[in-house]
Write a structure and sequence with these properties.
This protein is α/β, with parallel strands linked by helices. The chain has 2 domains: 2-36 and 316-358, no CATH class; 41-236 and 375-473, Alpha/Beta hydrolase fold, catalytic domain (Rossmann fold). 30% of the residues lie in helices and 20% in strands. Helix 4 (164-181) crosses helix 5, helix 5 crosses helix 12 (382-390) and helix 8 (254-264) runs antiparallel to helix 9 (276-289). Mean pLDDT is 87; it is low at 1-38 and 338-361.
């Protein structure tokens, strides 16, 4: 070790003047970074800042290295089932974006905690328990992916941008490594789940895991099916169905809709520039709908920023940002601490306890990293749905019926394109004596359901979403 440090000192001594302001420990950390290469970690969390008392469930956080030389470090939150973790299903939850942290799922959609909605006063936002957590009946891995999302990071400069297909392979690798460290879960029924943009990734991941079970990877993952909410599936289908959705919801007039159908011929997103009449109609359409909050058209449109009004729905995301960027929260979650080193080509030093790693990272946690460099190389996930159906994997596809990002009409259209017979036709599904939505099931073991009054993710109707999931995962009709 001393010889190696001497060699490193010899190499960088000409640059020593750049580091005169560094303390000896920090300088040694810079040297030791070249000698260390395993950042996998796991931590049991009993208390979280902002939550009163010990956590009423078992939470683990950590990093697992994947990819070439494990340069990509994927961060996860793992919550054990609160019922019977030895036998209950195990889920991985992937949020959308791409680039939206899985903390969205944990704190707003189907996790056991949420941020208390109150006006920010400069102190740490509070966390409170929920009544609708899917962890009541299943264990869930909430994964920050792709690299650059949430607290996930790369230790070195990436040769290629993250992508759909590349992410699928890295998540598959993550799962095998995670299960290797948690072998007690290898026999649990395993489900892939997510919403929004993860509709491009989840079906491909299901196929990747299924193929891997036969071809490469032992022990096999006990894959049993998948769950998707308001999924992006094929842009041309999903986006073009926004116009008939807008008409059905009385957002545009009959006359405008009939003209658009006749002149645009169903192509509303990628209009031929020579079709000037259609372009004018699309412009009129946007005058009607651009003032809407597409994720949930019943709520006012507000920009998601730190000066958002507490009256806005997205204010909860502001509170999450304050919470996740608090130093006490990062310490509790055992998040990599970034020390900026502008004159060092590696860009950052990362210190976890006494371990040291390279990092290229955002200096501030953001819920969704919208400017993430990314390659969208899966153009349609319909073929993956088809292959997964042929392989016999059940699926639950659900849509909040007030989502205009991925309107349920588009989801129904690609499901119809699979050409599977209906075995249980359109009917209401009930909670007590009230209609909670509508459902239909197919011969390919696919169940489609709407959530009445729901939006783009389960967060808009979390109680109903939980009951729907509970019935489906238990093999019961909705």
């Amino acid at each position: 070790m001393i010889q190696l440090l001497s060699l490193i000192l010899l190499i960088i001594t000409p640059m020593a003047k750049d580091y005169v302001s560094l303390s000896v420990p920090k300088f040694l950390l810079l040297l030791l970074i070249m000698c260390h290469n395993d950042a996998d970690s796991a931590n049991i969390i009993n208390h979280l800042p902002g939550f009163d008392g010990p956590l009423p469930f078992e939470l683990e956080t950590g990093y697992i290295g994947v990819g070439e030389e494990e340069q990509v470090q994927l961060f996860y939150y793992f919550i054990k089932s609160e019922r019977n973790p030895e036998e209950d299903p195990l889920l991985i939850w992937l949020s959308g974006g791409p680039g939206c942290s899985s903390i969205s799922g944990l704190l707003y959609e189907n996790g056991p905690l949420t941020v208390k909605l109150e006006v920010y006063n400069g102190t740490l936002p509070s966390l409170v328990s929920t009544t609708y957590s899917w962890t009541k009946i299943s264990s869930i891995i909430y994964l920050d992916q792709p690299v650059g999302t949430g607290f996930s990071y790369s230790r070195t400069q990436l040769a290629n941008k993250p992508s759909d297909s590349g992410g699928v392979k890295l998540i598959h690798e993550f799962l095998h490594k995670w299960l290797g460290k948690h072998q007690e879960f290898f026999t649990n029924p395993f489900y892939v789940s997510g919403d929004s943009y993860s509709g491009m990734v989840v079906p491909a991941l299901v196929q990747e895991i299924s193929n891997g079970n036969y071809l490469c990877c032992k022990p096999p993952i006990n894959l049993k099916g998948y769950v998707l909410g308001n999924p992006l599936t094929e842009t041309e289908i999903d986006y073009n169905y926004r116009v008939p959705y807008a008409h059905g919801m009385a957002l545009i007039s009959d006359e405008l809709y009939e003209s658009m159908k006749r002149i645009c011929k169903g192509e509303y997103e990628t209009v031929d520039p020579s079709n000037t009449e259609c372009l004018k109609l699309v412009e009129e359409y946007h005058k009607c709908i651009d003032g809407l909050y597409f994720a949930f058209i019943l709520t006012p449109l507000c920009e998601e920023s730190k000066d958002t009004s507490p009256d806005c729905y997205t204010y909860r995301y502001v509170l999450t940002t304050y919470w996740a960027n608090d130093e006490s929260v990062r310490r509790a979650l055992q998040i990599a601490k970034v020390l900026h080193m502008p004159k060092v080509k590696i860009h950052y030093l990362l210190v976890i306890n006494e371990d040291v790693w390279l990092q290229e990272s955002k200096e501030e946690w953001v819920r969704c990293y919208w400017d993430m460099p990314y390659t969208n190389d899966i153009k349609s996930s319909v073929p993956y749905h088809m292959n997964n159906s042929i392989s016999g994997y059940p699926s639950l596809i659900f849509s909040g019926d007030h989502d205009m990002y991925m309107p349920f009409l588009g989801t129904q259209a690609w499901i119809r394109s699979l050409n599977y017979p209906v075995i249980d036709d359109w009917r209401p599904w009930m909670i007590g004596d009230q209609i909670a939505g509508y459902t239909r099931s197919y011969a390919n073991k696919m169940t489609f359901a709407t959530i009445k009054g729901g939006g783009h993710t389960p967060e808009y109707k979390p109680e109903e979403s939980y009951i729907m999931f509970q019935r489906w995962i238990n093999g019961q009709p909705l």
